[in-house]
Amino acid sequence: MRSPIRSLPSSPCKSSPPPLPDSQKKTLCISVFRTIIHTSLNPPPGAYDFSLDLVKNEKTSTLYVILRPGLHEFLHAAKKACFEIVTFTWWPQKYVSQILNQIDPNGQIITHKLFHNYFLKTGNRKAVMDLTLTGRMKDRSVIIDKNPNLCVKQWRNAIKVSPFTGDNNDDELWRLFSFFQAQGNFIDVRNLVHVCSKAPPMPGLPLPPTTQKTLFLDLDETLIRHIFGEPPDRYDFATEMCYVIKRFGMDKLLQVATDCGYQIVIMTASVREYASPIIDRIDPNGLIAHRLYRDSCKRNKRGMFIKDLSLTGRRLDRCIIIDDIWQRVLQRENVVRIKPFKGDMKDTELKKVLHFFHVESRYEDLRDAVSYVNKWFGHQDL
């Protein structure tokens, strides 16, 4: 595939900048706008991460910034894999620096910030980022951009991601974690770029058949609470990505469900790279039989991930799911509804759930037991 910019005449935007200081690390160059953040001058309909004031012609407007899901975890994974992290953008340095300082307030993640002087002007008045101006070796450099064929001169070094539009269900950065796991096996990282750009979906459904009843468990804010950044005052363990607080009663729930003859399956809308290390830690005895991740969920018209128990191959009258967001389970009559776990050490929701296992044997259809327990909880209207 031939990049359209290779045939265009180009010249430095101004005098050529000095190359970056020498480094023994590999280089990860990341475009900023619509690659790792989404910005808007209008208040977004949902949550945003932070805002800043823009001043032009003595008029002040507010810029709202939404970070791409998984950004902090992605940057920490790159650092752990011994990459220097370099951001690049054509936008004015004054405002971009404020945004990047919010993303990396302590200056410990982003090594260099490149602006317009590291771009080349092309014959059609567009500008493209030129890796050679950094002084970095092409076989040790990777670029992540929403449109590398048009915006990056060394487009064969680039992994293309879809433009980020502010969707909080976006998983583009999550799926790139495999790059850091595999890159050590390649002398020339460009040989891995194509593979990561076309990562196949992970198989998960249907589950192998069983004669047991099935307990599906959501993960985040049902069994655990995760915290990124600074560690909380109390936490149970940490993974490479976050600090984790286990919900009180989780260990007993797993054991009681097993003793009652249930096969336990984690069903989460989170991605494997994030969830799997956490499940390893919360289940040292191997009571959890299967793990279903985001690729096993459906996506509705609004882009939200929905859990469809019918796809698991399990009989709906012999399975239940415990989830704090019952609206995102297609079979709502199978959901034991509980309140989200926010890290409160006085939380007793899972202790209440144990009542289900005291009464479930009375019901031939577990959905009837679920209905009874939700009413007993007073959670039928959560």
UniProtKB/TrEMBL annotation:
Any GO CC annotation of this UniProt entry: TIM23 mitochondrial import inner membrane translocase complex
Self-association and partners: Component of the TIM23 complex.
Statement: the UniProt record of this protein carries the keyword Ribosomal protein: no
Biological source species: Carex littledalei
Compartments, record wording: Mitochondrion inner membrane
One Pfam family cited in the UniProt record for this chain: NIF
Name of this protein: Mitochondrial import inner membrane translocase subunit TIM50
Disordered, as annotated region: 1-23
Alphabetized UniProt keyword annotations: Mitochondrion, Protein transport, Transit peptide, Translocation, Transport
